């Protein structure tokens, strides 16, 4: 039998799971240190010391789902199968807050400015490709699909149009694929759009509505970790990455913006969230509106 080292004893002490009757195991120093490094490396999310209680609270639910009684066991699971747990971990520590037509000025800009330009420039053929990067539960790409479908119909256009919607969270993607939402979550959708683009549930499905098949045809939903390889080739005419980079550290943001620039057509557009900025992080884009950026070199 080998003799435990001093480092091993110290780690065991710091990881010891105290079990208060109501709160469950405590996230020790060593496990929290590992989780911070793991999340930064694999998700690009920087967790400060002040996030410890939040991480502990959110991961407790994941431990229970896996039948684990301590955070050390969960860390071992991450070490042995990082990819298998990545989506659930990201879902637990991030906040999937979204809504239909959130930051409506972005959708107005697409409908009133970009789509007329695109229809004119692509009138002799071509295709239109948009990417919702960090689509969460699907409200963003489906709202974009509404705008695209309405404008294309208005102009009688048959332009080949698709929206790629990606996210790391398997739970969020499952909701997006299902395309079923409670009426309470549709506050940003006008009554006219609710009648046109949603199928109301009846009986046991009362209070729910399903996205119209026409919109589902426009949206392709796929899992993707923004920090890993991107299987799609592009190029895209516009990328929506709103309220995503707010979680990332500066080097990760810089790398991501460079990669976005490489995936956009010359003069393509990048939309960020209302509390996000590219200031001092990229020379590939110019600010042209409220968190609306255009790729240089058009």
Automatic annotation (TrEMBL):
S-adenosyl-L-methionine binds at residues 96, 98, 102, 140, 167, 225-226, 242-243. It comes from the Bacteria. GO terms for biological process: methylation. Its EC number is 2.1.1.80. It holds the Pfam family CheR. Keywords: Methyltransferase, S-adenosyl-L-methionine, Transferase. It is an enzyme of class 2 (transferase). Methylation of the membrane-bound methyl-accepting chemotaxis proteins (MCP) to form gamma-glutamyl methyl ester residues in MCP. This is Chemotaxis protein methyltransferase. It comes from Dyella tabacisoli.
